[in-house]
Amino acid sequence: GEHMAADGTIDAAWMSRVKEVVDYAYNDGLYVILNVHHDDELWLVPTKDKLESDKATLTTIWKQICATFQDYDHRLIFEGMNETRVIGSAEEWTGGTQESYDVINQLFQAFVDTVRASGGSNTDRTVIVTDYAQSAEKNAIGGMIVPKDDHIIVSLHIYAPWNFCGPDDTRADWGSDSDKQELDTTFQYLDDTFISKGIPVIIDETGCVNKNENTSARVAWFSYYLSAAKKHGIKCFIWDNNETKNGFGLLNRKDCTWYYPEIIQAIQDATK
Fold this sequence. Notes:
Structural class: alpha/beta
Number of domains: 2
CATH superfamily of the largest domain: Glycosidases
Number of strands: 8
Oligomer: single chain
Largest sheet: 6 strands, parallel
């Protein structure tokens, strides 16, 4: 949003930088997910009165991204929006409202239509859609209408339980039977709702923060979470905010080393 002119044109230097970063990974043979992130703080508000103007902005952005990347193969994946929600509302993190579901569903349909109409590899590129706030709340998932398309993935962000995973609570232990049951139930629900109907699911943000070096509890959580997700064919992406004090940081970007090698080992073992 802040990199766009009044007429919606994306700043050329910014687009060039995005392309450069995509190319780092893409040219190494990796899969890359490109998304529109944090525009909810600038222009994206899923309410009925914003629908038409937000749809126009979203399609303008994606037309330009599609033109820049239309010749990339299927290792480049487009994700239309990120954690779209009404910031500051009572329902911000509790699954949203029917009004928001209706708006988000229409915005994602417009995103998919825009990508498909743009030609090149975009006619059948894999695209990612999601629900209100990328939430695992059943009301949010139940309010989602997945566009009818043969190359679509549903993404959610699941840091569960939040009082262990997130920085807002002191809880530093994990691993009871009920802890494990919570994850099993969530993944089974996603399987029943989407995967069993032929719609793949990824969790493209998850992780748990360091709380006074509770590494063994984090190892147990990562091991169980990733292997339980894998049983359902759910691929997971770990959030790393480069912060190790009460944060999600795992990779030391300066030295290209791991802050917690035992966590990385657990991740690799669980996803083999």
